Amino acid sequence: DNRLESGIQSRTHRSWSASNSVYSPTGISTASITVPPFGWSQPSCSQFVGVLSWTGDATTELSGSVHSLFRRVKITASNGQVLFDSDQYDVIAQILQDCTLTSQQQQGILGITSLVQDDIRKLGNGVQFSFTPLISMLRSERIIPLHMLGGFTCEFYLQDAKTCFKSAVPVSYQISSLRYNTDVLVFDQATEE
């Protein structure tokens, strides 16, 4: 709406890191990112980014999109109220991918995510990825008042390797440098009221 647009004092690109630098199903298996209570977040301009590394052989590949790495996703407001919690997130993501993309679209691009490499199957030594969770709050065209929510925390619980990778040999994986990037808006006093 024009009133909101004219009341913007600042728009900055912000990035928040996960609480640890490396996560794996056999080590620290829950990645947690806290977004502080400042301004208004614009989810349509946001994404999670990180680096995925794995062991295996030349035939090792993800069984779905990057979403398949996460068994559970939980978002909690600072007051403890659970805003979203799905213990079968990877299954929901696979169903949505199967229903919305042709098999040709799913080959090579890993569906509803972007991986920045040409041939994902042959890479295991640090593939940069980005994705927006399949959660309405984090995909909305509407802005989120972080200062009214008190901020929020996103928790990503990793799936075990044999569930999220296809391979003839044992596989292990880790995610590192996980961050949440978004635009944060600050409005003038008149617009805030």
Helix-strand blueprint:
Elements: H1 2-6, E1 8-17, E2 22-23, E3 30-35, E4 40-54, E5 61-62, E6 70-77, E7 82-86, H2 89-100, H3 103-106, E8 114-115, E9 125-131, H4 136-139, E10 144-145, H5 146-149, E11 152-158, H6 161-164, E12 165-166, E13 173-187, H7 189-192
Antiparallel strand pairs: 1-13, 2-13, 3-11, 4-9, 4-10, 4-13, 5-12, 6-7, 6-11, 8-9
Defining key terms:
seven-stranded antiparallel beta sheet, 193 residues, 19% helix, 7 helices, four-stranded antiparallel beta sheet, elongated, alpha+beta
Task: Give an overview in words.
By secondary structure, the chain is an alpha+beta fold. It is built from seven helices and 13 strands. Strands 1, 2, 4, 8, 9, 10 and 13 form a seven-stranded antiparallel β-sheet that branches. Strands 3-11-6-7 form a four-stranded antiparallel β-sheet. A two-stranded antiparallel ribbon has the order 5-12. The chain starts with a helix and ends with a helix. Residues 107-122 have low confidence and may be disordered.
